[in-house]
Amino acid sequence: MNKSEFRIQNSESSLGPGPKGFRAAGVAAGIKATGGLDLGALMCDGPTVAAGVTTRNLFASAPVLVCRERLAKRGPIRGVIVNSGCSNACMGAAGLRDAHEMTRLAERAAGTQQGEFLVASTGVIGRPLPMEKIRAATPRLMESLRPDGWEDFARSIMTTDLVPKISRRSFQVDGADFVVMGVAKGSGMIHPNMGTMLAFVATDFPIFYRHAASALLRSVVHRTFNCTTVDGDTSTSDTVILLAKGGARKGFGGGSEGGKIFKAALLEVATDLSKAIARDGEGATKLVTVEVEGATAEIKARIVAHSIARSNLVKTALFGNDPNWGRICCAAGYAGVAFDTNEFSLKLQGKEVMRHGMPTGFDARTLSAALKSPEVLLQAKIGSGKGAACVWTCDLTYDYVKINAEYTT
Amino acid sequence: MNKSEFRIQNSESSLGPGPKGFRAAGVAAGIKATGGLDLGALMCDGPTVAAGVTTRNLFASAPVLVCRERLAKRGPIRGVIVNSGCSNACMGAAGLRDAHEMTRLAERAAGTQQGEFLVASTGVIGRPLPMEKIRAATPRLMESLRPDGWEDFARSIMTTDLVPKISRRSFQVDGADFVVMGVAKGSGMIHPNMGTMLAFVATDFPIFYRHAASALLRSVVHRTFNCTTVDGDTSTSDTVILLAKGGARKGFGGGSEGGKIFKAALLEVATDLSKAIARDGEGATKLVTVEVEGATAEIKARIVAHSIARSNLVKTALFGNDPNWGRICCAAGYAGVAFDTNEFSLKLQGKEVMRHGMPTGFDARTLSAALKSPEVLLQAKIGSGKGAACVWTCDLTYDYVKINAEYTT
Questions:
Q1: Largest interatomic CA distance in chain A
Q2: B354 vs A91: CA distance, rounded Å
Q3: How far is A91 from chain B (nearest CA, A)?
Q4: Residue B393 contacts by C-beta under 8 Å, 6 or more apart in sequence?
Q5: Phi–psi pair at B30, nearest 5 degrees
Q6: According to DSSP H, which parts of A31-88 are helical?
Q7: N or C: which end of chain A has fewer CB within 10 A?
Q8: How far does B82 lie from chain A, in Å, by closest CA?
Q9: Alpha helices in B85-206 (DSSP H)
Q10: How far is the CA of B133 from the CAs of A56, B129, B198, B290, in angstroms?
Q11: Has residue B111 got a pLDDT over 50?
């Protein structure tokens, strides 16, 4: 990895250039009542090798259905058009018609063939897309696509997010420079079950095989977006799209050296974005990392980590800087994974509070002070196996309740 | 059912007499910092037929382990001693020693054989029981046992509960009068997985067979306490105990007519207590009933109902009187149960908001006004099967966060 950059703050500091051949944009189409950016696009100058991972929610939104259909057809993909403010979910045939029309509007303005754009929508469920506004704004959106338009794109997909989420890594393979860059949105209705919320990642690294891109994306999503939870609610719109610039004669094939370097960069970008989503969880005051080790299998460690990360009691205690480790044991104990509680050990902020199933005795005041931090680390050891997992979440606060009690009405 | 009474409010109105032969009490032992009642007991004049259902949490508390052991031994059970303010969970061998000593203190004061008392504790996890206080207070507790001591007993087991929870039903079998009476506590860390929180039910109906009492209790718990969720957190202390006065030459055996009448009364008492727990959920402003029908099996309906009832987004929307039905669809859609979303219909407060997977169109203002109620009913139909289930929960409010961010420190 030659260079690594990560930005989630809204600053004018320099984020390096995006992957060669890609342009991005975001405009205000009037979908959001606030008048903010709400229609975005990401496009490649030529065909890409595309891969996607979408929600497992039965009420998958219309844009999710369109993405699945187009990715399954394996035709060339040139880009994606996205709106915020309305998720176009639970709208039946009308929703599908609108999602298809959104892609056609983008394709027409971009001069591509039909079927070459993907689409995503995020916002309130069960309301029709305001198509007149989208029809009116799409030509302007596509005209404003620029190589440095990534921040506008990131802003245009935000809903309750407080900050745009962008991550970039550059790397070298065989002396040539490449970039992988991604944006994500997500703040509430965040719980992994395949993709979590929207993320779009582009690279100029020439992935040749579609199935390799797809396998690689799934592997990375499993370790990143699917390790993020804000409130345990799996959205109807979850979508992660990877667009790799095509046109290469040969490129990354399976386990090549270049492919490994690319995968490492993609993993870092996806990790950045996943942590940014947890950190920016609705109402959150802190990023919480839950590490579980010693399980007899990775999946068991994941289940225990998710159980802890999803517990409202753990999350409210962390909001209150309360070293209430009993709640963490409790959440591990009901996870549904068998382990010997006499082997259970737990650390909060590096301080061991439980060893082999018994409290160690610690100064609650000192530990509470240590929890007053924007980043909190919980580490549980449930046995002597090799299975380990890490999940990112946030605390549960008054503001989560406020945001979600006042969202639509 | 001749007569049905239910009281959760603290009023001096008359609750009918308890089951014959049972006495109850609650005293202040100084375990709670507030000085409130915190040590209670329920005792029968003779041996009982006892049944119990306890938590599936791996970190089952020491009292839970003692109850399991004694119920498995099938010796005569005379009563139960309970404290609030400290759960005696995650305390290893010392916790087990303390739980055993609590039973011996009660047995000695009551003059029963060793092993004839059950024990339960509820409160903070991971702190030692203050045994000196319990030693000092138990003789006084046992002396104060009275046939009309049920309310003191109900108060002595409260933690964050705002109201004591008592329910009573009287019924006749073959011309004789019987009573089933129960108390429960529970407000946070409430999510079903076998027993949920503490509940103690006594009856003077002569159940003869222990296995019949046990099967009957499990069946009722499955439909009542296990249908209650406040925050998705399954406690380490969950215990439901049924004590049926013994001494009968013959009594309820399996499917006898009297047994059926008793079971109906027990089901009503357990339903009352379960709804009382949900209504008194930490910070709750309303009782929420989630009914799911049309599933191909009861377990599938239960899973969908629990998924809706556990969703933080649904629960915060209800707190805000927000008819945000999309969140209910979303929670049903990620429950992990396959159904045809085109068959999904949903009613809020009796108003159909979604029919066959499409919004019906409704006046949000009117529906929001209807949601401003201390009881809210959500009814989902997920197909045309015969599987149905009902789950009780509450809304998620600022006060839930406040209570749980400030609990131990």
A1: 68
A2: 10
A3: 6
A4: B228, B229, B230, B278, B281, B288, B290, B309, B310, B315
A5: 90, 15
A6: 62-73
A7: N
A8: 20
A9: 92-110, 131-143, 150-156
A10: 54, 9, 22, 43
A11: yes
A23: buried, middle or exposed (CB in 10 Å: 19+, 13-18, 0-12)? buried
Most A-contacting residue of B189, B311, B401 (CB-CB within 10 A), to test interface? B401
Q: Which residue is associated with the tokens 């999940």?
A: A391
Interface ipTM above 0.90: no
> pLDDT by residue (tens digit) across B222-243?
777 777 776 666 667 778 788 8
Binary contact (A56, B334; C-beta < 8 A): yes
What global pTM score does this model have? 0.78
Residue of A94, A82, A9 lying closest to A280 (CA atoms) = A9
Question: B193 CB near a chain A CB, below 8 Å?
Answer: yes
Q: Report phi then psi at A107, rounded to 5.
A: -65, -40
Q: Detail the DSSP E strand segments found in B210-349.
A: 239-245, 287-295, 345-348
Q: Which residues of A form the catalytic set?
A: 196
- Considering only A100-104, A111-115, A251-255, B62-66, which range has the smallest mean pLDDT? A251-255
Q: Looking at the complex, does the CB of residue B361 fall below 8 Å from at least one CB of chain A?
A: no
Does A339 reach chain B within 8 Å, measured CB to CB? yes
Which positions in chain A touch B311 (Cβ < 8 Å)?
232-233
Identify the residue whose tokens are 């490449």.
A178
pLDDT digits (tens, 9 = 90+) for B51-69: 888 887 788 889 999 999 9
Name which of B90, B234, B312 is nearest A359 (Cβ-Cβ): B90
Residue A360 sits at φ, ψ, to 5 deg, of -85, -20
d(CA B321, CA B370): 8
* B328 has a chain A CB within 8 A of its CB: no
Are B354 and A127 a contacting pair, CB within 8 Å? no
- Inform me whether the C-beta atom of residue A297 falls under 8 Å from chain B C-beta atoms: no
Handedness of CA A135, A137, A140, A142 (dihedral sign): negative
Q: Within an 8 Å CB–CB cutoff, is residue B327 touching chain A? A: yes
Chain B residue closest in CA terms to A127: B359
Top residue of A58, A303, A308 to mutate, by most chain B CBs within 10 Å, is A58
For A342-374, b/e burial (b = at least 16 CB within 10 A) is: eebbbbbbebebbeebbbeeeeeeebbebbeee
Comparing C-alpha atoms, which of A72, A131, A68, A79 is closest to residue A102? A131
Name the residue among A363, A35, A1 with its Cα closest to residue A177. A1
Distance (Å, whole) CA A266 – CA A170: 10
Residues of B taking part in catalysis: 196
Q: Which residue has the higher pLDDT, A223 or B140?
A: B140
